[in-house]
Amino acid sequence: MVIGLLTGGSDCQGLNAAIRSIIRSAIQSDIKVVGFNQGWKGLLENHPIPLGLENVSGILPTGGSILGTSRINPKKIKEGIPTIEENLRKQGIDVLVGLGGVEAQSVLLELHKKGFPVIGVPATLDNDIGCTEYCIGFMSSVDVVADALDKLHTTASSHHRVIILEVMGRRSGWIALYGGLAGGADWIIIPEVQTYFSDLADHLKKRREMGKYFSIIVVAESAKMPEIPMPDLKDKDDTGQLRLDRRNIGMRIGEHVEKTTGFETRVTVLGHLQRGGSPVAFDRILATRFGSHAVEMAVKKQFGKMAAFRGNNIESVDLAKVVQESPRPVPIQLYNTARMFY
Ligand code: F6P
């Protein structure tokens, strides 16, 4: 058997841990692995790279993807899916294992519908893929947010300022909610819950009255605030998706806070620091479990499915269900728990 392997869409911490696990597990089952560079681009251009033990030595703790990745989405390219299918067959690939977010899983589903064997592995710091409680990369980005909040607390407290931290999350508030909970945020703004600016301003004033002279707000880049509408964004990435970093939601909220409350306010945009560097232990273990499960799925010919973390077990879930249930919103119960600590 030959496994084709790629990482598609944005990178995240823990991809290399998963690649290592897939290659090492495959070798133990006498399976060959062939990689494709820069995500779907490598497959469209048909550049296979044989992978072996020498490629994975020492990569468990490293960030990024040794295979590289890109936002190229073959579903949005004319003849993209048939070209990929043809190249996979030409290379003698028996099953394609794809690591990535919702877009990558939906490309795999498309290939599956055409009759090509595929297996998905959920990897995105956004943690918004359906049917899995955790995706590779999520906990590492939460750690970065929590660390940033610890640091912002000390300076906000010295200067009696409001500090706003803008974090990633294209369609969901997972990073903002978990990061905010871990770092003791005084207010969290996520797309799943409509936040009214007046409520936020009242809360900040109340905190001052209680003798709390600083406040920390975490905002997801995709947050919804009726008083701060989404501008008509023109900038799109390679897949045609809006560049949410150009929305400047953190800065806009900051200006509103300063104008309305008179409290001195500063804004930090965490950006790609959330996606870079070494994965935390949770992600290394999750990626290792997903990787060996994906190879087990290949051996058992469980195709058209994604490895999923459910109740501390790794299970195989139909890709059609995964795509249908994506993007997965945060549980409102957890959001309400976070509110208790405002
Ligand atoms: O999907 C992961 C993600 O990091 C989002 O949270 C963010 O909106 C987007 O990718 C940023 O993409 P890029 O790296 O292309 O700027």
What is the CATH C level class of the largest domain, in words?
Alpha Beta
Largest sheet: 7 strands, mixed
* Total domain modules: 2
- In the sheet with the most strands, the strands line up as 3-2-1-4-5-10-11
What is the average of the pLDDT values?
95
E-strand count: 11
Ligand names: 6-O-phosphono-beta-D-fructofuranose
Share of β-strand residues: 15-25%
Helix amount, in percent? Answer: 25-40%
List segments where confidence is low: pLDDT < 50 over at least 5 consecutive residues: none
Structure report:
By secondary structure, the protein is an alpha/beta fold. It has 12 helices and 11 strands. Strand 4 (95-100), helix 5 (102-113) and strand 5 form a beta-alpha-beta unit. The longest helix is centred in the middle third of the chain and has 22 residues, at 138-159. The model has no long low-confidence stretch (mean pLDDT 95). 6-O-phosphono-beta-D-fructofuranose is lined by residues 10, 71, 101, 124-126, 168-170, 221, 237, 244, 275.
What secondary-structure arrangement, pairings included, does this model have?
Blueprint: E1 2-8, H1 15-28, E2 32-36, H2 40-44, E3 48-51, H3 53-56, H4 80-90, E4 95-100, H5 102-113, E5 118-122, H6 138-159, E6 162-167, H7 174-182, E7 187-189, H8 197-209, E8 215-220, H9 249-261, E9 265-269, H10 281-299, E10 305-310, E11 313-318, H11 319-324, H12 332-339
Parallel strand pairs: 1-2, 1-4, 4-5, 5-10, 6-8, 6-9, 7-8
Antiparallel strand pairs: 2-3, 10-11
Helix pairs in contact: 1-10, 6-7, 8-9
Bound molecules: 6-O-phosphono-beta-D-fructofuranose.
Residues 10, 71, 101, 124-126, 168-170, 221, 237, 244, 275 line the site of 6-O-phosphono-beta-D-fructofuranose.
